[in-house]
Amino acid sequence: MENLKRSLSKKGNVQAAEGSAGIICASIREGAPTLVIIPWKGRRWVMPWIHFLYAWHESETELDRIKLYYSSHEVSLEGVRLEQLVEHFSKFGVEWIKSYDKRYSQLCPQELPFIEKIQVEEKAE
To answer: What are the extents of the domains in the chain?
Structure first.
């Protein structure tokens, strides 16, 4: 678990094993006041953890899904190995998440989550 925390806490592109470039899709920081959401394309979001309500995770054959519910928005994630993030979401310990085009999945270290799609939707009033 400590290796996961160390690996996830590094920002942006990092050096993976054997000196190859790697992609990191999440940063873990205990007590982060907000979750910064950085989709592959489009608008960035800063969601305060104080407005977080609950989340769920499901795993299908090829993809994992996580849905985060805030008081005013719903955040959907799709990717692989996302189950690792659920515990950190429950403790408000994820500082930022970032998605990448599916073509870059091989650049992500195989022990870390890879997020290929993030969608943020405003709840209807």
So the answer is: 2-122
Give the pLDDT confidence of 54-71 residue by residue, as tens digits. 999 999 888 999 999 999
Structure tokens given for 104: 């870059």
Burial 29-57 (b: 16+ CB within 10 A, else e): eeebebbebbbeeeeebebebeebeebee
Give the pTM: 0.80
State how far the Cα of 49 lies from the Cα of 11, in Å rounded to an integer.
20
d(C-alpha 1, C-alpha 33), whole Å = 22
Which pLDDT tens digit goes with each residue over 105-121? 999 999 999 999 999 99
Six-digit token pair at 11?
């920002």
How far apart are alpha carbons 50 and 33 in whole angstroms?
8
Exposed, middle or buried, 123 (CB in 10 Å: 0-12/13-18/19+)?
exposed
Residue with the two structure tokens 């489009």: 42
